[in-house]
Amino acid sequence: MNRLKELRRAKGLTQEDIARILGVQKAAICKYETGRVAIPQDALVFLCDFFGVTADFMLCREEGPQASPRLKPPAGLSARFLPLPDTVGVPLVGCVHAGLPMLAAENITEYIPLPAADVRNGEYFYMEVEGDCMVGACIPEGSLVLVRLQSQVENGQIAVVRLGDEVLLRKVKWISGQLVLIPANTRYEPILVADGDVQIIGRVVEARIRGL
Q: Is residue 13 within 8 Å of 4, Cβ to Cβ?
């Protein structure tokens, strides 16, 4: 539970207004307000500043004073007219279903706001890492990887690769003209890819732990 809907209505704002401010779709705000999806940490920090409340108040962990020591709207200025952050909503891809494009609506679980300058040159998405195949590259299970959509990557770069019905995160190498997908964990063996249903979806440009 959270007080996003209550605070939004108190300011006379619509879900579309909040979505525009965060750089996400209206559907994401609906999910935040109903509790179907937790408010991402970076969005939570911004919303607390925006409404002038503490995180504990926003998340219904306290009833007391709402005031936050962080930014508050200047007296007499409606929140609707505050300068909007230069952000965009980057889709977070969940379970990828066979036969669907990576960024099909059925695969997108939420949108994560990022500075527009960080994703200006290309199309990007986030993917949550499952498994420990890439722990040696500082990409533990549960972390989020930011991926730039591109069909080719340089030798040795980490990429998201579709192999048949699976979507894998691996280091890509070509050895004697053959594509090899290399894990960053000695518990797993490299995969030698024969000709067939294989597609490089994008290059990993950064990894982060959710909430940090």
A: no
CA-based diameter of the chain, in Å?
68
Question: Which pLDDT tens digit goes with each residue over 76-102?
Answer: 434 443 444 567 788 888 876 666 778
Q: Which amino acid is at 206?
A: E
What global pTM score does this model have? 0.60
| CB contact at 8 A, 73 and 81 | no
Superfamily of domain 89-208: Umud Fragment, subunit A (2.10.109.10)
Of residues 77, 78, 71, 107, the one with CA closest to residue 91: 107
Q: Where in the chain are the domains?
A: 4-85, 89-208
Q: What is the pLDDT of residues 110-130, one digit of tens each?
A: 888 888 888 878 899 999 898
- Architecture category of domain 4-85 in CATH: Orthogonal Bundle (1.10)
pLDDT of residue 118: 83
- Token pair for 61: 């962990």
Contact criterion met (CB below 8 Å) for 32 and 3: no
